[in-house]
Write a structure and sequence with these properties.
Blueprint lengths: L3 E13 H4 L8 E13 L2 E5 L8 H11 L14 H7 L9 E3 L5 H4 L9 E5 H9 L15 H8 L6 E4 L2 E5 L2 E5 L8 E7 L2 E6 L5 H6 L9 H14 L2 E4 L4 H5 L7
Parallel strand pairs: 3-4, 4-5, 5-6, 10-11
Antiparallel strand pairs: 1-2, 2-3, 7-8, 8-9, 9-10
Length: 258
């Protein structure tokens, strides 16, 4: 099975340079996009991530307070709401068959209940170590990993739709996931068969400068995991892309990777 892939920007924010490039770029800020990827093929409509909350108030206050400047807040137009992104493609949330979430952060998880017919793919390791039973203190509060209303859905009405994914698993023909780490315990890489070869999408690097130049990620949990995961991505993919990098749209006009 071969799939098409298109990226959409669901919001923009700016972070200090050292958050993207470890111990570099102290006096600059880096633009970050919150990308949603729509994968289509074989009658299936699949999303990687669901975009930030409909109401940005809580997450924006937390990010503004943490970074200390207003540009850290997510800026988004009505057209960038996930339901309107889908509408632009002739789809509704009910048309989505599968949602893959990486990582477990509110900018990826917040709209999961919007997709009533979707199987929800989450790293089993991440579900435990990033949310249910962390081994150590996490700097992101629990409600900014999975918002309370989304947690209520996942643990109750939506539990039957949750698919906790192994560290290596075939989601369906032509789509595989593997645990990536580096950024969060819930970080995965999604490998998709396309006419352009294997495309790997992940949050395990922020920008092409990380993985192409070997410049370590500023916000990461393990350099060892970065070496292993980035090496694997370079070896196994024909194209790769982050869920944050605006350069995706420069390299792939219209966000069309395949």
């Amino acid at each position: 099975m071969k799939y098409s892939i298109q990226a959409f920007n669901a919001g923009t924010f700016w972070v200090p340079g050292p958050e993207v490039y470890w111990m570099e770029s102290w006096n600059q800020r880096e633009e970050m996009n919150i990308l949603i990827y729509l994968i289509r093929g074989g009658g299936q409509n699949i999303l990687i991530n669901t975009g930030p909350p409909q109401d940005l108030g809580i997450i924006n206050k937390a990010w503004r307070d943490f970074f200390g400047y207003p540009e850290a807040q997510i800026v988004r137009t009505e057209d960038q709401l996930p339901q309107n992104i889908l509408r632009s493609q002739g789809l509704t949330p009910k048309d989505i068959n599968t949602v893959i979430v990486t990582p477990l952060q509110a900018y990826a998880t917040a709209n999961i209940p919007m997709f009533p017919n979707a199987t929800i793919g989450i790293s089993r390791k991440g579900w435990i170590e990033d949310f249910q039973a962390p081994y150590y203190h996490l700097h992101v509060p629990r409600h900014l990993r999975i918002p309370p209303d989304v947690n209520q859905y996942l643990q109750n009405d939506g539990w039957g739709k949750v698919r906790l994914l192994a560290d290596e698993e075939e989601l369906q023909a032509g789509i595989r996931v593997f645990w990536a780490g580096v950024h969060h315990r819930s970080s995965m890489a999604v490998s998709i068969d396309t006419d352009k070869g294997k495309v790997i999408i992940t949050d395990a690097f922020f920008k092409y400068g990380n993985i192409e130049s070997g410049r370590y990620l500023g916000v990461m949990e393990s350099m060892i995991e970065a070496d292993a995961t980035w090496g694997r991505i370079r070896k196994e993919s024909d194209l790769f892309a982050s869920i944050y990098d605006p350069e995706v749209f420069a390299r792939h006009p219209g966000g069309i990777l395949a």
